[in-house]
Write a structure and sequence with these properties.
This protein has 151 residues and is mainly α. It has six helices and two strands, in the order αααββααα. The radius of gyration is 18 Å and the shape is elongated.
Length: 151
């Protein structure tokens, strides 16, 4: 019987990286799809504006500014993706962030991300003060973010 790594390497050879990556992403999504969890909801423009204002236009995962001109280009992230019932899609469990930051966070809760980079959840959710150039979370979440701090 072959090991998981041997099976995976054989899949890479046979199907190529992009197809294997697609399957892995699909499995990751399926892992989060359980019977008790409600479907993800579409967040209205008004709610997105409220979230953006509450966050002062700052991504809580990387600490950089987000472009508020098109809020639908930003991701709505579930702070704790492991909640069930109505708490999963509650506004208190969601915030806006850069798409690249959300992908890097994956299925981890904000508490897991904070623990991994030595920060507190409160620090990660705190909006930066005007003129404060120190990042909220120096965790590599926003590699490739080119957004500017809102003025």
């Amino acid at each position: 019987m072959e090991t998981c790594k041997e099976w995976f390497d054989e899949g890479l050879k046979q199907y190529g990286y992009s197809q294997v990556e697609g399957v892995v992403k699909s499995w990751t999504r399926k892992r989060l799809e359980v019977e008790d969890r409600p479907a993800r909801v579409k967040v209205s423009p008004g709610v997105r504006r409220d979230m953006y204002a509450k966050q002062s236009g700052i991504c809580p995962l990387c600490g950089d500014g987000m472009d508020g001109r098109n809020l639908f280009k930003l991701d709505v992230d579930h702070i704790n993706p492991n909640l069930f019932g109505s708490a999963f899609n509650a506004r208190a469990n969601m915030h806006l962030c850069h798409p690249s930051c959300n992908r890097a966070k994956g299925a981890k809760s904000l508490a897991e991300v904070a623990k991994g980079n030595g920060r507190t959840v409160t620090d990660m959710l705190r909006a930066k003060e005007q003129g404060d150039d120190e990042p909220i979370a120096d965790n590599g979440m926003a590699d490739g973010c080119e957004s500017e701090r809102p003025k």
